[in-house]
Amino acid sequence: MKPFTLFALAFILFSCDPKEKIVTPDPSIKPPEWIRGTWIYSDSTNYTEKLIISNNDIIKERIINSDQNSISFIDSCKDNSITIEESVKYNIYYHIEFKNKNDNINHIYLAKIGGNEIRLINGVSPTTKSYVLED
Fold it and tell me: What's the domain range around 42?
């Protein structure tokens, strides 16, 4: 009986993981209803940008001449281990804070400036952009 007891004790000791595993939830957002939809920005250089805002993601599409690329904010955050915090103020202002594993922070602010117009302000773009709601 002693060999079995020793084997069982050794199995228990070596099968336990001494480190606690920390589970990080997937990033998620819930943009307010007033900002959901497809918003378009364009300029005189044939550059067009779309913000497609749904109930759980923001997709940014860039169109230059006939080239198009798009990025999902949620997929990008998952791929790059970025956490998200969001806040809404007064049904005219939406703020998202992105923080990576090195505690670098980037902010995006969306503010309603008219019935069908929002303004995007972020730390990357030197100027603000105004987007018009697509019909």
Answer: 21-133
Q: How far apart are CA 108 and CA 120, in angstroms?
A: 7
Domain holding 105: CATH number?
Answer: 2.40.128.210
Q: Strands 47-53 and 93-99: what pairing?
A: unpaired
- Give the separation between CA 132 and CA 135, rounded to whole angstroms: 9
Who contacts 11 (Cβ-Cβ below 8 Å, separation ≥6)? none
**Rounded to the nearest 5 degrees, what angle is found at the Cα of 10, between the Cα atoms of 6 and 15?**
155
Query: For residue 50, what pLDDT band results from cuts at 50, 70 and 90?
Result: very high
| Residue 88 within a domain | yes
3-class secondary structure, 7: helix
- Helix locations, 1-135, DSSP H: 2-15, 73-79
Number of domains in the chain: 1
Q: Tell me the C-alpha distance between 8 and 4, whole Å.
A: 6
User: Above 60 in pLDDT, residue 121?
Assistant: yes
Beta-carbon count within 10 A of 111 CB? 18
pLDDT confidence of residue 133: 95
